[in-house]
């Protein structure tokens, strides 16, 4: 299980700045599923995956361009690395079976992991770690300073005793973590310096929100920075303030930078006493950012102004539409009144009204009828007289 910590030991020195890390994660599963290889090795640089081996292809696959260039230039080294990975898969298979017996796990999905790596800071600080895991939890870890092993449970004690029975192995592992691993790290930094040794300045913003209990929470968001190492804290009157604070972990962004957040609950009347303090390699001096309430209120006032304008426009539109509707209802009655008035104005002032015209017509008609009857009556009388006269 430990046979791979010597691989790639013949690497050149490279440039170094700030804080950087290199790690390898080995994973072996008892029952591989679709798309998941039984055995894999993931190499990560500054917590970003750069190289991957899996048992399906039985080869290493570069995950970034400069790693592909490195493999082409050192093909012999990577061929040896591939052969060592194949041997490691066999060793992991045996170790997993042994652990399953220790834990009395004969069936089901079980996972064996091994993770080791090193790190170095701009101040020369060196670090290294070596851990074994079973089913997602650490069961054995190595301390390179004391050259001792820590077992998590009774089953891990068996592995611990075996390793302690070989004192030279602990010294060998310490040398690898403090020397060989760091040479590999420096070589990686040499090839990937354009992206790995860059510095991105963090963007710091502070916002606030009112809690249900009447208190106010200040939230400081720090994003877009690289490298990963950063120091962010709350300051009250210039002093570090830890009471009622929460702190998120540093997380990667899709563009290769990092972000984090931290919050503090305060009395709303004391917001001016708090600042978000940030220190980073890309900054010439620390940054202190406080909540900008005047600007916040200005934004609210600006938003309120436009909301008021919209409300006024809506009121005017509604009033205009109502006015048009009422005018449309009045127009037919006005037209009818206007027509009657126009007819009356065109009539001869000396002409009688329609009712008077009817009475006059009736009187004239009656008079004409009477005249006609008289004429008929006179005619009949004349005819009678004519017939009675002798020849």
UniProtKB/TrEMBL annotation:
Signal peptide bounds: 1-17
Protein name: Major histocompatibility complex class I-related gene protein-like isoform X1
Membrane topology per record: Single-pass type I membrane protein
Family: Belongs to the MHC class I family.
Gene responsible for this protein: LOC103066805
Region (Disordered): 341-360, 371-391
The keyword Glycoprotein appears for this protein: yes
Record PROSITE patterns: IG_LIKE, IG_MHC
TM regions (residue ranges): 300-320
């Amino acid at each position: 299980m430990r046979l791979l910590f010597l691989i790639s030991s013949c690497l050149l020195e490279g440039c170094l700045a700030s804080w950087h890390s290199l790690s390898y994660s080995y994973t072996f599963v008892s029952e591989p599923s679709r798309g998941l290889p039984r055995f894999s090795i993931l190499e990560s640089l500054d917590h970003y995956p750069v190289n991957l081996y899996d048992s399906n292809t039985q080869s290493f696959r570069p995950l970034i361009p400069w790693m592909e260039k490195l493999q082409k230039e050192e093909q012999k080294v990577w061929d040896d690395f591939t052969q060592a990975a194949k041997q490691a898969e066999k060793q992991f298979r045996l170790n997993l079976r042994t652990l399953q017996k220790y834990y009395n796990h004969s069936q089901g999905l079980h996972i064996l992991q091994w993770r080791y790596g090193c790190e170095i800071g701009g101040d020369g600080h060196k670090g290294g770690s070596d851990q074994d895991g079973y089913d997602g939890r650490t069961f054995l870890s190595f301390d390179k300073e004391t050259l001792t092993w820590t077992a998590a449970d009774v089953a891990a004690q068996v592995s611990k005793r075996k390793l302690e029975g070989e004192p030279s192995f602990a010294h060998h592992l310490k040398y690898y973590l403090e020397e060989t691993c760091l040479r590999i790290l420096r070589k990686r930094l040499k090839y990937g310096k354009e992206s790995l040794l860059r510095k991105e300045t963090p963007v710091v913003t502070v916002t606030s929100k009112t809690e249900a209990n009447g208190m106010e929470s200040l939230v400081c968001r720090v994003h877009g920075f690289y490298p990963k190492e950063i120091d962010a804290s709350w300051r009250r009157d210039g002093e570090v303030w830890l009471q009622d604070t929460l702190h998120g972990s540093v997380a990667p962004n899709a563009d290769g930078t990092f972000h984090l957040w931290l919050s503090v609950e305060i009395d709303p009347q004391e917001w001016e006493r708090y600042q978000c303090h940030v220190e980073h390699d890309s900054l010439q001096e620390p940054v202190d950012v406080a909540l900008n309430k005047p600007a916040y209120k200005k934004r609210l006032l600006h938003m309120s102004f436009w909301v008021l304008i919209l409300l006024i426009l809506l009121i005017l539109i509604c009033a205009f539409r109502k006015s048009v509707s009422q005018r449309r209802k009045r127009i037919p009655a006005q037209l009818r009144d206007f027509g009657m008035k126009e007819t009356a104005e065109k009539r001869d002032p000396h002409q009688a009204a329609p009712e008077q015209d009817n009475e006059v017509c009736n009187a004239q008609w009656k008079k004409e009828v009477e005249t006609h009857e008289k004429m008929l009556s006179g005619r009949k009388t004349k005819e009678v007289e004519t017939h009675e006269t002798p020849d």
